[in-house]
């Protein structure tokens, strides 16, 4: 299978490298120091499941440099989605299936604004991985899973293209499944991720501290309840007890686990906040669903959205 991976960071780098190792023709789109390092020495993936290395010639600096693709995996930060969608149109019109592995619940709406709706398949990923240094991706732990499927499948058998990708994932040792309710899967992940990212960032502590302190534990629960309520108002079939179930799941996580947004906050990087707690608050307003806890997190962290703010000190 010809696969283009747009964004060769933790998510794209790991899954793309495993597919490449299984014999698929994978082209990575990267930029900056990461691109330069891959061009010089290839892409290295360090993982408890086995280290991998992708040859330097597998990386290109632009989507326009991808000759052809059967599947495009989008793994860039959420603020780049619209720009990437515009650039993907020639590949999509030529028949490529586009699957976003990004966080958030608005990503596929953005893709469908610029691409043929038929070309967009829903997707979600479950992994902890990051760029350890330019040219090197580190996979934390052993969790690595992809879920994808056609929008509006409603219990139908997997489509031919979904089944083909599932086969390639199996060959690559990637845990994967085709979901007949992929929009619900995306929202279920979003509910959890909004809680994890919002609270670890606002409290500036890992999940162990958040869940172990009564006030911040209540905040975590309420943030997820608000997100789930917004999803239901959007017509997504989410269980009434989803937030409480996700809270129980948080109790099983390693105490030192944090979120990518918390890491970005600590490192002074731009935040995906507007597409997480900010999105819950914005969508809640549109739908008439109160989301005061998510709004508070969006407000508290707003000075850091574009990175560490200038202090004004001389």
Automatic annotation (TrEMBL):
- List, for all copies, the residue spans of the domain called Ketopantoate reductase C-terminal: 182-302
Question: Could you list the residue ranges that cross the membrane?
Answer: none
Catalysed transformations (reactions): (R)-pantoate + NADP(+) = 2-dehydropantoate + NADPH + H(+)
What EC numbers are recorded for this enzyme? 1.1.1.169
Arranged from A to Z, the UniProt key words for this protein are: NADP, Oxidoreductase, Pantothenate biosynthesis
Quote any Pfam family the record assigns: ApbA_C
Gene3D superfamilies, A to Z: N-(1-d-carboxylethyl)-l-norvaline Dehydrogenase, domain 2, NAD(P)-binding Rossmann-like Domain
Which pathway or pathways does this protein act in? Answer: Cofactor biosynthesis; (R)-pantothenate biosynthesis; (R)-pantoate from 3-methyl-2-oxobutanoate: step 2/2
Query: Does the UniProt entry include the keyword Cell membrane?
Result: no
**Domain Ketopantoate reductase N-terminal, which positions?**
3-151
The UniProt family comment states:
Belongs to the ketopantoate reductase family.
The free-text function statement in the UniProt record for this protein reads: Catalyzes the NADPH-dependent reduction of ketopantoate into pantoic acid.
- Please name the NCBIfam families in this protein's record: apbA_panE
Q: What is this protein called?
A: 2-dehydropantoate 2-reductase
Which taxonomic lineage is given here? Answer: Bacteria, Bacillati, Actinomycetota, Actinomycetes, Kitasatosporales
